[in-house]
Amino acid sequence: MYISKVDIYNYRLLNKTRISCEKDLSLIIGKNNCGKTSFLSILSKCVGSKNEIGSFDFNDFSTSFQKRLYSVVKGEASFKPEELEGIRVDFYIDYDENDDLTNISTLMLDLDPKNTTVILRFEYVLKNNISKLREDFTNYEAERSSLTSEVAFDKFIKKNHKKYFEFLKYSVLYDYKTERINDSIFKLLDNKDIDISKIIAFNYVSARRNVSNATDLELSALASAYYEKTKNKEENDTTTLKFEKQVDETDKEFDEIYTETFKNLMDKLSKFGGIRKNENVVKVISQIQMSKLLKDNTTVVYDDQSNFLPENYNGLGYLNLFSIIMKIETLMSDFRKDNKQDEQPADINLLFIEEPEAHTHPQMQYVFVKNIKNLLEMGRRIGNGEKAINLQTFMTTHSSHIVAESDFDDIKYFVKEPIGVGFNIISKNLRDLRILYQKEKGLDNNHFKFLKQYLTLNRSEIFFADKIILIEGDTERILLPAMMKKTDQDHNYELPLMSQNISIIEVGNYSEVYSEFVKFIGTKTLIITDIDTYYLSDDVDNNGNIKKNKDGSIKRRETLCRVCEGEFTSNSSLKFYLKDQLESNKGTQKDILVGLTLKEKIVSPFDIIDQEDDKKEGVWKANRDGKVLIVYQTTEVNSEGVEYNARSFEDAFFHINRKLFTELDETEDEKKIKKCAEMFQGLKRVELFFDKTKDSFDLASACVSKKPSLAMDILLNSKSENGNDFINWQVPQYIKEGLEWLQKD
């Protein structure tokens, strides 16, 4: 038995959100303020502790519902019969023939054996007294004429909402044939009829852990709690008796007993802490007083082989990690109902771990996520391990390191999307990407496999980025941060590019591989690529003889050339993202690309229906409101007044920055050439820079020996003045335009 889905309506940013749940671990990721903590909060208010259940605040309502309620109370609108008048949460509980159905039998509204899903619904909704609410607010507003109506309503409803809203529990019919909830068939649940805690038990490890407070011994408190939970288990019975008999003995003797008592827990902690031999080892030692037994008389210390140090002397990373593991062990004991022989574990146990990465370095985060599943699996087991509780775990994180070590199919990506007057959170399953790629590229494509491996191994931070830049190669990767800073300096933005959360991904000439992913995450994306022009010429062998095809026709080959000489582009990214423009406009590929404006390079995905086989085909089309911009070299005038359209990045950079390589502090050409070679070791044949018959295309073709070295040389030879950096070279126009577009929201 497990919860397969949770539907949430009108709760904070979760306006209309469906969250699919894995049977074991669901890893929830996303940018800041995208509903991760709200999900934890609503779970607590539905199935949490007694003091949390039903404890709604008016600010828990989504902003769109708050505005809707105000307009209804003011008489400007009215709720439609089918309209939800508050917050709703639906839990989809799936079961099979092996489950004990005793507790959920009350929820069953369909005896068809094929229906193996029940819906447990929670609502915080208006009572049938909207007229009373309207009347009371009218009187309240009349007495406060100095306040605007909106301000008066905000103050009134925040103070009095519990008079007009009520917390309700239902069982609602799930129609397995239509795979939808049938709202017309339901059962109102009373606390006398059903104990929800027997069906779902919920607890969490909050991100707000007290490990940073030097005066609070959080681990020591958790150690005491752990002992209280486990002291009656068989493995600790003997130890408990020893404690009672040895109360008048020395602390040293108690230290040995504590070591035995907490051995199981400490063994687990050592796996997570990455502790080496002779490094600090966490221990629990005795501080017993003659008048008391164990409770409240233990403290956690660190053994540095010669002295015992208090827990708050160790790093926050260790404190945080040990705190999490101790807390999980204690909560698992609660779930198993240890020490409660007259109680059975709940049918479903939900554990929520919030942001475990706090204060920990990347290596420790890797160790944590590698071991967490095993820790939870061990914690599920009851007694000798023959039985186990049903456990589902949710874990939120902002750590790209944790994502990199996680199962791709476990990941839920929360993204905020605008709707009407507010926003809604969409929960996307990364496993669905496989289906999208199969639809786009076919069942046998390797794009998804490559993307999955590349993102998890190298670029997991992309999931947390507000904006993305896809670049071709090493030169752009090394120079782009400097170009972003130069763009900031030129414009003095209120929110500079360098202050934004932008992820730069090197993709080569294969940005189309990322198309479904870019579409999936919906993040604003700049693609920087090359126009890569060529023309077709007769193919010849080494002797200059023309090659022919089998049918006798002359073989043709692609010849790389300047843009002004070209007809086609070899760039697959341009042909993919700008396919619609290339097919719908007249002229050669080169002419069309050169003629496109910046707005025509902003694209969005559209689904086109093939009339013959009725299949959808994803096509990117120009859309000035789109979230993807693809830029490439454009016509640009350099400082000498020469107008030119470059073919590649190096071509464009040399065109507008040739003086960077030639205007050196030497008078003789030979010395200049020598100095240029010393300064720019990523170049070869640097004398060509001083040959005015050679244009930037010639230089890009003949002079670049090591692109990464050239990029580093440019940075090393950059100059600063009056607080501005990189003043002795310019950013190519096409990159500058792209960065200016990306800077905006």
Structure explained in plain terms:
Residues 463-532 form the OLD protein-like TOPRIM domain. It comes from Hungatella hathewayi. This is SMC domain-containing protein. Residues 1-403 form the Endonuclease GajA/Old nuclease/RecF-like AAA domain. This protein is α/β, with parallel strands linked by helices and 745 residues long. It has four domains: 2-24 and 53-191, no CATH class; 212-343, no CATH class; 431-523 and 639-745, no CATH class; 533-631, no CATH class. It has 24 helices and 28 strands. The strands form seven sheets. It has a six-stranded antiparallel beta sheet with strand order 2-1-4-5-6-7. It has a six-stranded mixed beta sheet with strand order 8-12-15-3-16-17, sandwiched between helices. Strands 19-18-20-26-24-25 form a six-stranded mixed beta sheet. Strand 24 and strand 25 form a beta hairpin. The chain starts with a strand and ends with a helix. Residues 289-295 and 307-311 have low confidence and may be disordered.
Number of strands: 28
Distance between the termini: 44 Å
What strand line-up does the widest sheet have?
A: 2-1-4-5-6-7
Our count of domains comes out at 4
Instruction: Classify the secondary structure makeup into a structural class.
Output: alpha/beta
Q: β content, as a range?
A: 15-25%
Biggest sheet features: 6 strands, antiparallel
Tell the overall outline. globular
* Share in helix: 25-40%
**Count of helical segments?**
24
**Over the alpha carbons, how many angstroms does the gyration radius reach?**
33 Å
Round the mean pLDDT to the nearest integer and report it. Answer: 86
**Which blocks of ≥5 consecutive residues have pLDDT under 50?**
289-295, 307-311
